[in-house]
UniProtKB/TrEMBL annotation, chain A:
Keyword terms of this UniProt record: Amino-acid transport, Signal, Transport
Domain Leucine-binding protein: 23-329
Gene3D superfamilies with a match to the protein in the record: 3.40.50.2300
Leader sequence residues: 1-20
Species of the source: Citreimonas salinaria
Protein name: Amino acid/amide ABC transporter substrate-binding protein, HAAT family
Record-linked PANTHER family: LEUCINE-SPECIFIC-BINDING PROTEIN, PERIPLASMIC BINDING PROTEIN OF ABC TRANSPORTER FOR NATURAL AMINO ACIDS
Family: Belongs to the leucine-binding protein family.
Any Gene Ontology biological process: amino acid transport
Entries under SUPFAM superfamilies matching the protein: Periplasmic binding protein-like I
From TrEMBL, chain B:
CDD domains for the chain: TM_PBP1_LivH_like
One GO MF term attached to the UniProt entry: L-isoleucine transmembrane transporter activity
Compartmental location: Cell membrane
Source taxon at top rank: Bacteria
GO BP of this protein: D-alanine transmembrane transport; L-alanine transport; L-isoleucine import across plasma membrane
Stated name of the protein: Amino acid/amide ABC transporter membrane protein 1, HAAT family
Matching Pfam families: BPD_transp_2
Length: 394, 336
């Protein structure tokens, strides 16, 4: 009888410890709302990284990462906060992959993550405002801030010796944020912005906006808008009236449809777009194809990297806690250490277990700078003969 | 030379766009004013009828293009306009038969008809989107410019360029032709005269044997023609998107009211008043003044009265001022 009791006790104990072996990780993304077409692939990519970690068997003596999804809605901060609250209090997640859109990410960070000490790695929030958010060292992102893009664009102008430009941006958080960061970077370098004017998307006629920009003058027009919306309208109208014939374009303007429509008129115009290419991106495509995920979709690479960084940081800290993640993300993401590609997480875990250093490169050549955000690689392109041609990577 | 530059810059950015825009508004406002004068209600479905007429024209344009029929340097859409007008005429006549006539028989108050027309607007709205979707459509073809800025600079040696798009030229010429035709019809033909009589005094007109059914039918036909032409010209010159046509409702109504509802000449003047004030008030005059003024007086700022964001507010402002000080409009139309 005693033996039986002991046996059941042991069983109960091991059962209990099996539960304790699970490490819940939240994935909070807008599964409903404006970017609901992107989020399934993003979440699947993050889960792919966790599965890879689990299958390696090297992770913290066989503990298991368990993804828990929640809906950020992308636009409703209250709903996102409630969903994140649930992840922390009832699911007990130790870290969060997300959120996705800049607005809800800020809300989740200040309302849930900071009060509870839960680290977040967002794969897709690009607003410059998040760089200065009060985060107690808990917020990271694998997407570059638009502040960086503004700097990159200002550098390109300096390289070209252009000192006077007019700016137009689409009238929303993205356009305004990017225009502001570009203008401050450009003015710091001694450049002059003759006029910064917003344009509304979806209008038929931009001639009066272009007229005031033309009056202000400038060597070229910097356009921070969307290629299928007002940004294209502004360029078209500028070309028609002869107000400007050279344009510098932000990432929202990069599309093949734009060059197809305007063609040779855009020759000599240039711009920058986030780019991931090289070994990491190729490897990522291989493993997502194997797993049946569309790895070409936007922000899938960043999502995979975010989840991988959380696992590696736990491994480096030697425990599956929030503190371990917050303390170690920067170490595993940056040099020194051995470069880690997508699909090599098992190797990375082994190196960390042996006390070595890793420099996680992942699918997007991860390099976290400043307050823990991706430096981002931008492709500096110029349009020649109606086609995009690469000048440089920055 | 500097004065020439100032004139060219002004023409390029203010006069040419405003004249084309004014012509498009004038055609739209003429339709509103005819309906108000003869059928006696404000037709809020105007913008969406315009979108529908353009849609039919676009479909025919595409069909012609696919068969290889084009007008050479002119846009193919001009060829498709008659079909667009026919389609729109069918639609508005059917609507009149099914919806408006019912309320006219019941002698419904004008304000009730306004609400009814809002309902019609939503139906048209959906109809247009079901057929062609809510996206931007570009259906202009042929030569893009009569003269473009670069050529103009090379030709004249001036610093400033002047660009006139083919569509702007066509807009103005077509508008003049259509308006001339309309006035000839209203003043010289029997039907036109009976329409004016019906508008002036309904009871007297009925007593003298004018058939109300016929007047109403002819009015809808003319409105369908005006509206389709206005919509196609606007779409050619700018771009076709159902939502922007809906938004055009405001400047069109402003134009009709400023000119005096029920007065055709008022609608035309109103169209140009609204267009010129929208463009001129939001224009930054710096460049023009730099050329025109002696160097000592050159302005530092942009000399812009209002940011372009407030473009629509200009129509509202003019509307308010006119309603306060001259409720019947510039040309003594009916009081609103």
């Amino acid at each position: 009888m005693k033996k039986y009791l002991a046996a059941t006790a042991v069983c109960a104990l091991t059962g209990g410890t099996a539960m304790a072996q699970d490490v819940p990780v939240g994935i909070i993304m807008g599964f409903t709302g404006p970017i609901e077409s992107l989020t399934p692939q993003m979440a699947a990519s993050a889960e792919l990284a966790m599965t890879e970690v689990n299958e390696s068997g090297n992770f913290l003596e066989g503990r298991t990462l368990v993804p828990v999804r929640a809906d950020s809605t992308c636009i409703d901060s209250a709903a996102a906060t409630a969903a994140a609250e649930r992840l922390v209090t009832s699911d007990g997640v130790v870290a969060i992959v997300g959120a996705d859109c800049s607005g809800v990410t800020g809300a989740v960070l200040s309302n849930v993550a900071v009060p509870n000490g839960i680290p977040m790695i967002s794969p897709s929030a690009t607003s410059p405002a998040l760089s200065n958010a009060e985060d107690n060292g808990l917020f990271f992102r694998t997407a570059p801030s638009d502040a960086r893009q503004g700097q990159v664009l200002a550098d390109i102008l300096e390289e070209r010796g252009i000192t006077e430009v007019a700016v137009t941006y689409t009238n929303n958080d993205y356009g305004k944020g990017l225009a502001d960061s570009f203008i401050s970077a450009f003015e710091e370098q001694g450049g002059t912005v003759t006029l910064s004017s917003a344009h509304e998307d979806g209008k038929a006629d931009y001639s009066s906006e272009v007229a005031s920009l033309a009056s202000a003058g400038g060597e070229l027009l910097a356009v921070f808008g969307y290629s299928d919306q007002g940004g294209k309208g502004m360029i078209q109208s500028s070309l028609d009236t002869g107000a400007f014939d050279t344009f510098m374009m932000g990432d929202g303007m990069y599309s093949d449809a734009l060059t197809a429509d305007l063609g040779d008129d855009l020759n000599g115009s240039f711009g920058a777009a986030p780019w991931s290419e090289g070994e990491g991106a190729d490897r990522f495509l291989e493993i997502t194809e194997e797993a049946g995920i569309n790895g070409d979709s936007t922000f899938t690479r960043e999502s995979y990297d975010a989840a991988a960084l959380i696992a590696l940081a736990m491994m480096a800290g030697g425990e599956a806690t929030s503190q371990a993640v917050a303390d170690n993300v920067m170490n595993v993401a940056n040099a020194p250490g051995e470069k880690i590609m997508p699909g090599e997480l098992a190797k990375a875990l082994q190196i960390l277990a042996d006390g070595g250093d890793v420099d996680y490169d992942g699918a997007t050549a991860v390099e976290l700078i400043g307050p823990g955000e991706a430096s981002g690689t931008y492709r500096y392109y110029e349009i020649k003969d109606g086609e995009y041609s690469t000048v440089d990577f920055k | 030379m500097d004065l020439l530059n100032a004139i060219v810059a002004l023409s390029n950015f203010v006069i040419v766009p405003a004249v084309a825009y004014g012509a498009q508004l004038a055609l739209g406002a003429l339709g509103v004013t005819l309906i108000y004068g003869i059928l006696r209600f404000s037709n809020f479905a105007h913008g969406d009828t315009m979108a529908f007429g353009t849609l039919v024209t676009i479909l025919f344009t595409w069909w012609f293009q696919s068969m290889g029929i084009t007008l050479g340097v002119l846009p193919t859409a001009l060829l498709a306009i008659p079909f667009g007008i026919a389609g729109t005429a069918l639609l508005v006549l059917a609507t009149d038969r099914v919806v408006y006539r019912f309320y006219r028989r019941k002698k419904a108050k004008p304000v009730m008809l306004v609400i009814v027309s809002i309902g019609v607007m939503f139906v048209y709205n959906g109809l247009t989107r079901v057929i062609l979707g809510p996206d931007d459509r570009n259906f202009a073809d042929g030569e893009r410019f009569i003269i473009n800025a670069r050529d103009f600079r090379e030709m004249t040696g001036l610093e400033e360029g002047l660009a006139i798009r083919t569509t702007q030229g066509i807009t103005v010429i077509t508008a003049v032709l259509v308006v001339a035709l309309l006035f000839w019809f209203l003043n010289r033909t029997r039907t036109g005269k009976s329409m004016r009589a019906y508008s002036d005094n309904e009871d007297l007109a009925l007593l003298s044997g004018i058939s109300p059914e016929k007047v109403e039918r002819v009015t809808w036909l003319i409105v369908a023609a005006l509206i389709t032409v206005a919509g196609v010209l606007y779409g050619l010159d700018k771009s076709y998107k159902p939502f922007t046509y809906f938004q055009l409702l405001l400047p069109i109504f402003a134009a009709a009211i400023v000119g005096g509802l029920g007065s055709p000449i008022g609608a035309i003047v109103g169209g140009f008043v609204i267009a010129f004030s929208e463009v001129a008030i939001t224009y930054a005059w710096k460049k023009v003044l730099e050329y025109a003024m002696p160097q000592a007086l050159e302005p530092d700022g942009l000399v812009q009265l209002l940011s372009t964001d407030y473009k629509f507010a200009v129509s509202f402002m003019i509307l308010l001022v006119v309603l306060i000080f001259r409720p019947t409009g510039l040309f003594r139309g009916k009081s609103v």
